[in-house]
């Protein structure tokens, strides 16, 4: 199960950084949403696809690939749900991915957390 999730996450991440919203849609649940806790804002996948498509068409899709300090995986008992917590080095910010497995792994939520992680040294 770990390997299948890893493959799905890699494909989804690559699709994001290359601006391939058609591949993103294959790995995102139809009810996928992005939650920005700090701003109190929620973005649907379709709104995101439109923004990504517009940016790609105009040659301005250049998301930065941040330096990851850690990734933590927490599966439920049935191994069909996984929360991935990711901490970034530069600004100590964290994001949380929520993945579910039905017939394949799909991400249902991407949450930019308010809280910062502690420095590890």
Describe the structure.
- A six-stranded mixed beta sheet has the order 2-1-6-5-4-3.
- It starts with a helix and ends in a 9-residue tail after the last strand.
- The model has no long low-confidence stretch (mean pLDDT 91).
- A hairpin with a 3-residue loop joins strand 5 (94-101) and strand 6.
- It has a single domain (2-112), classed as Nuclear Transport Factor 2, Chain: A.
- The chain has helices at 2-18, 21-27, 45-57; strands spanning 28-36, 41-44, 68-75, 81-88, 94-101, 105-112.
- Helix 1 (2-18) runs antiparallel to helix 2 and helix 2 (21-27) packs antiparallel against helix 3 (45-57).
- It has 121 residues and is α+β, with helices and mostly antiparallel strands.
End-to-end gap: 32 Å
Supply the number of structural domains. 1
Arithmetic mean of pLDDT: 91
Order of helices and strands: HHEEHEEEE
